[in-house]
Specification:
By secondary structure, the protein is mostly helical. It folds into 2 domains: 111 residues, Cytochrome c-like domain (Cytochrome Bc1 Complex, Chain D, domain 2, Orthogonal Bundle); 83 residues, Cytochrome c-like domain (Cytochrome Bc1 Complex, Chain D, domain 2, Orthogonal Bundle), CATH 1.10.760.10. Helix content is 52%, strand content 0%. Helix 4 packs antiparallel against helix 6 and helix 7 packs across helix 11. The longest helix is centred in the first third of the chain and has 18 residues. It is globular and about 50 Å long. The relative contact order is 0.18.
Length: 207
Amino acid sequence: MKKAILFALATSFVGTAVFANESAKTGDATKGKTLSAVCAACHGADGNSSNPDWPKLAGQGEAYIVKQLHDFREDKRAEATMTPMAKGIATDEDVLHLAAYFSSQKQTGGTANKDKVAAGEKIYRGGIMASGVAACSGCHGPTGMGNPPAKYPRISGQHAKYIAKQLKAFRSGSRTNDPGKMMRNIAAKMSDAEIEAVAEYIAGLHD
């Protein structure tokens, strides 16, 4: 337990240090709303997607959204639908506007599978000592609201299916845009059952 907590704290510090010197840039949410029309089919008009295969963007950290869009644009993260969509955004300023709009929206929250919540909560809050999995709360916070300065995303209320899909992508190495392999190192030690349990718990978290 102590090792898992110390690891989480250490990686949180490293992540904060990496991004501390980056200039804080923000966009115009009003312009972003206009630009977001093309995003609505998958993510919903207000960033609350109805399809669990696509993430909710409402209330997500602005800097995190910017990073992910740039990663798609620069082929640091690949996804058949999002890569061409991100590359179709006209300018870097438009990326900022979109991020500002979606981050300003209110997330609708989610629900969890009650049969998996207890097991998921143990992992989220305490990690898995036997396999060296750090507690999710160390970076994402006790209520899953993330750490905006470090660009750790908000995960509370996110679709469980999407969370599980991303953890499995980190585990397989098909997603590699996590700083310092932080998520890949954690997900590599998790079973399908553990991933699904923690994903369900995260889906039910509220701020």
